Amino acid sequence: MNREPSDDRICLLCAESQVPNGITKNGRFFCQTCDREWILEKRKIPRIGKNILSSQEKTEFLLDNLSLFNSSMGLEDLMQRFTELISVRLKRDKVAVFITNLELGEIRLVYYSSQKRTLQRAINRIALDYDLSYGVLIESMAKGEPCFYKFTDQTHPFYEFYSKLTGTKSQLVIPILYANTAVGLLTIDYEEEDYSDFLEDQEILQLVVGQFAVSLRNSLLFSKSENQSKNFQSLHTAALTLSQLYLNNHDEMIRMILLTLSGIVESSFTYLIESPKETSKTKIFKLYRDLENYQIHTETQIMETNSIGPILQMKETTVMNPSDQSIFQSMGIKGKESMIFPIILENGTRCVFVLTKQDSRFPNDEIEALNAFISLARITMENSNLYQNLSNKERLEKEIEIAKEIQSTLLPRKAPEAEGFSFGGFMVPARGIGGDYYDFILSPNRNELFICIGDVSGKGVAAGLVMATVRTILHSLVRVKDSPWEILNDINNYLYSNYKEAITPRFMSMILLRWNLITGEVLFSGAGHGNFYHYHAGSNSLSVIETEGVILGIKPEISTFRNESKLKFDSGDTILLYTDGVTEALNTNEVQFGEKQLQSSFLSCIQLEPKNILERIYAELKEFVKEQEQHDDITMVAVRKI
């Protein structure tokens, strides 16, 4: 290979003239001084980049970043201090941070820093089109690699507009990666097209964005946790308010439901389409929330049922683009995404809730909260109808039947699809509506499974409402927390803060297991629920696992009762969880079924499938109690590793 004299080339990283160890077809080499692969620049007179940092300056920059990330701050403060640090240390005036949301398929500009405050305010107000303006950003995010590009190479008109506004000729894009997934993007604007200093910017920034990714993710999780807490409070308050105040005032009840829904997810348009059976007119309740000016407008409209027939025929929760629906345009609904929630009341009335966001989409945790609240709203709407039309006895019986049906939809409808495992779940409420709860929650990556069983104090509708709310909380928490104990602690905080002053306080016992489906390891915590059984197939023996903890909702602080234990499950092993409705079931002689009898029944049918084990135990329990009235909910869960 022909080499040019050493004084003819300079390394742009260390500014030393060196002969390369080997030139590739892309013009790259390994500098003998800094031992890094870099781009050579051919010059008779070496030109050192005006922004090259010394080793001491690089060290100070890294230490400043570590100090920044070790502190606790909100998202806005984090963005401001990080971009200011880059501006000061690297002498870069125009720095932007984007956040990516893979669930919603969007990239959002969250902060733009510039010494020109008028320019900073103007850029921060720009709403970029995801499909058109983000081509280079999406490519960098997808590859997980930095990208430097010239605006003159881009054909979309946005780049010409942005260049005139900011004076930008080229841009460096660096993906912010957490666990190999892009959580954001960092961009640096340059006022020259061939800007050699971007190489050093890229090198030093790649060293710090990894740590920044951790802080950014933690800040986003904290914001999400705050939103979930607000949702839980809204669910609780709305359920109590609707149940107590609006049964005899239908229109006010609907307006309160819409107001609560719009507050849970900050939707701009929240509508209820209500079409009674066998009528030609449909009533539409509208609520518009001006999120910028904090104003709320409500109105009611009557439309011909035939004109909105397709919406009324919907049977499942649906996501729509409102601009694609002429019916929505005629109703004044506009925005980026609409959620449709149809329900049919017992009297045949068709109701459709329509929630629309103007500038964003609905994430999964918000959709789950909406589903939970609409279930509560449906109970209230049914109760309102019953209040108007039925006698006291008929109304109560019908209320229980409706609540029982809705509660049954909250329990697992089928076993999770986890290869190598078999599941069984079983609940028989004592009064139509139960306070017992069990669930299987499989992680999105299908590597972990949360299993829980719990028992709310009391019975009937009140206990069922608590159970439904706790289910919503649990499904949200397992997405952001790994520790069973931390999840139980958050549920305790909710129960205590919301029921401490209630006429009838509500408590709940629970066992929560986090099962690693890859390693077979089980991490579990207890909250005053008692024992569960572990059958060891290898030794044909049964272990009684004693859980600890304290019943949730009694104390404001339960950290002193913290407990987390591990179990190892082998092939053929089976666990059985149960509530006290099983062991404390009484026969006609007032004798309890008891743990010894339950253990014996469990072992006698251990060769059956888990769901069949539960059926056999329940059959033996019914034979034991005979005609004696059931006084408590009966719930069991069985899981086997195949």
From TrEMBL:
The keyword Hydrolase applies. One of its GO terms (molecular function) is phosphatase activity. Residues 74-226 form the GAF domain. Keywords: Hydrolase. Coiled coil: none annotated. Residues 418-641 form the PPM-type phosphatase domain. The keyword Kinase does not apply. It holds the Pfam family SpoIIE. This is Serine/threonine protein phosphatase.
